[in-house]
Design brief:
The complex is a heterodimer. Chain A is of the alpha+beta class. Chain A contains four helices and seven strands. In chain B, helix 15 packs parallel to helix 16. The chains are: A alpha+beta, B alpha+beta.
């Protein structure tokens, strides 16, 4: 029993070209988050520490619309927080996890974001997607941070406002 | 009768013309006017409370017609899915049955358990609507590992424990005493890996309801449509039998997994009346992985005592059998009566005791799958015998021979409740040793070693109890139904023959074999015989196909029916020839008296156009019979496997496999060879590749072909198969059954070869490269 599928564990770090306070603000800004999450159809703030989102995503052969409930705890602005996610995808199954996120100021004025995620999946995601979960999670994180990076990059921002989507 | 088509002829399968030209008609090929589509809502959790199910958004989908929940079914009084075999614990109490509603009502107990059905105008709309059903689950802690289940808190509300039964067979005190006195005791811990059946055709159902007549018709992938009807009528109470027709059209493989009455066809039939439209459901492959009954999943400790001379004195077996979350239709009988009774194997072991703990876990229910209990029993007996030979420095073939029941010992009563009617185990072992060239093994081993590979050889001298089953005995032991079979033979007015059988073909080739039997027996041309099966509207009754029973029981029913045809025909012919019936003989399709001769065709015509006809005889020439076997049949044989193990990679290659089987009389040797080949491939799958794995949360992580490894052509060698024959003593065909033997005998032979090559007994199925590599490197 239980040789595999013990869950998702992942960590990483990204250098964001913005001041820590700006990064913190953006991480708490539904509009920014919605723009950075691939397939995000809606994202709303439910309160100081909670969001709800609808995300269309694909994990291996499983493609579904997921209802995501996000809750923030252990908030230490602008240094760190823990993000809890509860993801439900009807027939596609579910995911649960939390991410510890820390923001560190660097000498060159940028911010180093570190995260470490632990989670697990169930239903079809575990059944036919288990061996793809890690790579998919990695890709989702990379996509998010590259979009987030761009959203906070002053140069990219200027370009974006000049060419509205 | 014709040597080309009669009993013993390798007639090509007539059904293959439609199968290999794409003209088979499977359930999903059928479409009816007004048809709608069903999609099941399945639990993503191994164990959870259902707090609420909100279908409002789902019903807004264009084309969505209805969403049914377990609550709806309960309100309509839909009965639970029953377990058909009542097993008693050793203290005499009945097994503990967890209620099994077709749709979960308040709690789900395994990943994939259905809790709702969405019906829509199209499959796409049904899927879309299913995505929008919002179910609020409250996750509960699951119990996953069988070994810990008995001690864990009960998964079902209202049950005191996860132990369904504590069953035993044999004399425990005598067995313990014999073990204590043994010169040598071999001890072995074994697991029998969970398997997931993989019929090529997934399960499907198409249900219709006619409100004007109140008649239901269910077309479904079933191995036994009459039993399906019986259960849906008597237990689930959808409709009385005369208002419910069940048709199993072409069925693409079953291996046991289509015996059982499942939630899906039950719910679809009930719902067809609710929506007033036909509903079709066809499983996706990923559903099949979760929702088809799984197989095996035993944990066993066994002890075998030997005297100084190497004679077995006692066998003690302790098994925990994972039954899954609910008792499937025959799930209770598999690790008990189909398992413990076979632990004598081919040997004269005088003392045997077996104890089986059947436990509930939050996993897919486990039930019969090709072999059903007998592969598990064979694995225990043949692994421990091989280990005992190694421990005591005896040749494994000779240790077996020393302990075998001898031809003069039959009928032989075992200490575990069976009476073997006949056999010659030495003959099949001798033939197998000859075919494998046992004497040349050392040289082959040296040749393999020269190529950096270890070579091992392993034996398995199996026995099985087939031809299920003598009804009175089975019912006495807890079976809920008789296990006879029906057969009907209609000689049509112009002499062609229509045969109706209650057994069912889903790959076995009955349309050919049964036609051979009837054509041979009645002396009519093979092409004049048509076989009808799989339809409660056309066949009076039947109990379907499983346990290698079709020929031994269903074929015997046809012999009885043919005897009645001949008896009546003799009276008609005697009247026509103005002879005494006693003076009329039936030979090669003709009634003969002196120099007068009337063919069966002529007599049949006279029976339907009764101009010159016995006044006390009814017209027509159609007879039916029910055949209830006196005893099980006991196919047995010797399987020998040779493997090469690559030391660098741990890869096991099955390089040679010899199977010598005694199936009694063989009707069609080509079909028998095919059955053996298929069974051997499945056995190789269990031994080397297949493994259903749940993680600690009860999630099935081997739920697709990316992770569940089925055997392919290049995983098996060119099998060498042969037969020896001791005819079954109690059925008119002398046939024993061949469907399961390959899957029963081969896993033990293969693992015995792998353990021989690697040099440790501690190798579990499947012997994956990773595991074997670790053992080779002492890890």
């Amino acid at each position: 029993m239980s040789k595999r599928g013990e869950g998702v564990e992942q960590s990483g770090e990204h250098r964001i070209p913005a001041k820590r306070s700006a990064v913190w603000r953006s991480l708490n800004d539904p509009a920014v988050l919605a723009r950075c999450i691939d397939g995000c159809q809606s994202l709303e703030r439910l309160g100081e520490d909670a969001f709800t989102a609808t995300v269309r995503a694909k994990v291996g052969p499983v493609r579904a619309t997921f209802q995501v409930a996000l809750k923030l705890t252990d908030m230490r602005p602008p240094e760190s927080y823990v993000l809890h996610a509860d993801v439900k995808g009807a027939g596609a199954g579910f995911g649960k996890g939390s991410a510890e996120v820390t923001l560190a100021e660097t000498e060159d004025g940028t911010t180093l974001l570190r995260y470490s995620v632990a989670g697990r999946v169930g239903g079809k995601l575990a059944q036919i997607g288990s061996r793809l979960i890690d790579s998919t999670a990695r890709k989702m994180a990379d996509d998010f941070f590259s979009a987030f990076h761009q959203a906070l990059d002053p140069a990219a921002n200027r370009q974006q406002s000049a060419n509205p989507p | 009768m014709s040597a080309e088509t009669g009993i013993g002829a390798a007639v090509k399968r007539r059904e293959d013309l439609r199968f290999i030209t794409g003209r088979g008609t499977y359930t999903d090929d059928l479409n009816v006017p007004g048809q709608t589509y069903g999609v099941f809502l399945r639990s993503p959790y191994a164990r959870a409370k259902i707090n609420a199910i909100d279908a409002a958004d789902a019903l807004q989908v264009d084309g969505a017609l209805a969403v049914f929940t377990g609550q709806d079914a309960a309100v309509d009084g839909l009965g639970d899915l029953p377990c058909g075999w009542l097993v008693k614990s050793k203290d005499g109490s009945d097994m503990v049955s967890a209620p099994h509603p077709p749709l979960a009502v308040s709690q789900v107990n395994y990943v994939g358990e259905p809790y709702g059905l969405v019906v829509a105008e199209s499959l796409a709309a049904a899927r879309e609507a299913a995505e929008l059903v919002a179910a609020d689950f409250e996750e509960l802690t699951p119990v996953v590992a069988a070994a810990e289940a008995a001690k864990a808190s009960p998964i079902h509300e209202g049950l005191e424990a996860n132990l369904a039964y504590d069953w035993e067979l044999g004399d425990e005190a005598a067995t313990d005493a014999a073990l204590a006195a043994a010169a040598h005791v071999t001890r072995l811990d074994l697991t029998n890996n969970r398997l997931i059946p993989n019929a090529i055709e997934p399960r499907a159902a198409l249900a219709t309801f006619d409100p004007t007549s109140g008649e239901y018709e269910l077309r479904t992938t079933s191995q036994n449509p009459h039993l399906e009807r019986l259960v849906l009528s008597a237990f689930v109470q959808i409709a009385p039998e005369h208002k419910l027709r069940v048709v199993a059209p072409d069925v693409g493989g079953g291996f046991g997994s289509k015996i059982f009455v499942y939630a899906e066809e039950t719910v679809v039939t009930w719902a067809a009346a609710k929506v007033g439209r036909p509903i079709k459901w066809t499983a996706e492959r990923s559903e099949s992985f979760l929702a088809d009954a799984h197989a095996r999943d035993h944990v066993t400790h066994a002890e075998l005592g030997l005297d100084e001379a190497g004679r077995f004195t006692a066998l003690k077996v302790r098994t925990t059998a994972n039954l899954g979350a609910y008792l499937s239709l025959f799930g209770s009988s598999v690790p008990t009566f189909l398992y413990g009774t076979l632990l004598a194997g081919q040997y004269k072991t005088p003392n045997i005791h077996v104890q089986t703990h059947g436990v509930y876990t939050n996993t897919t229910p486990v039930d019969a799958y090709r072999g059903a209990g007998r592969p598990e029993a064979t694995f225990v007996v043949e692994r421990i015998v091989e280990a005992a030979a190694r421990e005591t420095g005896r040749d494994p073939a000779e240790l077996r021979r020393l302990n075998m029941i001898e031809p003069g010992d039959f009928p032989y009563e075992t200490p575990v409740a069976l009476v073997y009617d006949t056999g010659n185990y030495q003959a099949s072992l001798d033939r197998a040793l000859q075919l494998v060239d046992y004497g040349g093994f050392k040289q082959r081993r040296a040749a393999s070693e020269a190529e950096g590979k270890r070579r091992g050889i392993g034996f398995s001298c199996y026995i099985e109890a087939c031809g299920l089953a003598p009804s009175q005995l089975a019912i006495q032991l807890g079976a809920g139904v008789g296990l006879y079979e029906s057969g009907e033979i209609r000689i049509n007015p112009t002499g062609s023959v229509t045969v109706f059988t209650g057994s069912h073909s889903h790959g076995q080739g009955h349309e050919t074999t049964f036609a051979q039997v009837v054509s041979d027996k009645l002396g009519v041309p093979f092409d004049d015989v048509e076989v009808v099966h799989g339809d409660t509207g056309r066949v009076e009754f039947g109990l379907g196909t499983y346990g290698s029973r079709s020929l031994a029981v269903g074929g015997s029913a046809l012999i009885s029916a043919a005897d009645k045809i001949i008896a009546k025909g003799t009276r008609i012919a005697a009247h026509m020839m103005q002879a005494e019936p006693d003076n009329v003989a039936f030979e090669e399709g003709a009634f003969i008296s002196g120099n007068q001769r009337l063919t069966l065709q002529e007599v049949a015509f006279a029976s339907y156009v009764p101009a010159d006809y016995p006044p006390d005889l009814e017209p027509g020439l159609s007879e039916k019979a029910f055949y209830d076997p006196e005893n099980f049949t006991y196919p047995a044989g010797a399987h020998i496997a040779e493997v090469e193990v690559d030391e660098a990679t741990g890869v096991v290659q099955l390089v040679n496999f010899v199977a010598v089987d005694d199936f009694g009389h063989v009707i069609n040797p080509m079909i028998v060879d095919g059955q053996v080949h298929g069974g051997l491939a499945q056995g190789a799958g269990q031994a080397l590749l297949e493994h259903g794995i749940y993680d600690a949360d009860g999630q099935l992580t081997t739920g697709s072909y990316m992770d569940y490894c089925m055997p392919r052509a290049d995983d098996v060698p060119d099998f060498t198969v042969d037969t020896t024959v001791t005819p079954c003593t109690h059925n008119p065909l002398g046939a024993k059954g061949c469907g399961e033997a390959g899957a029963i005998g081969s896993p033990a032979a293969i693992i015995n070869a792998v353990t021989d090559a690697v040099g440790t007994e501690d190798i579990a199925m499947p012997a994956t490269p990773e595991q074997v590599w670790r053992k080779l490197h002492g890890l």
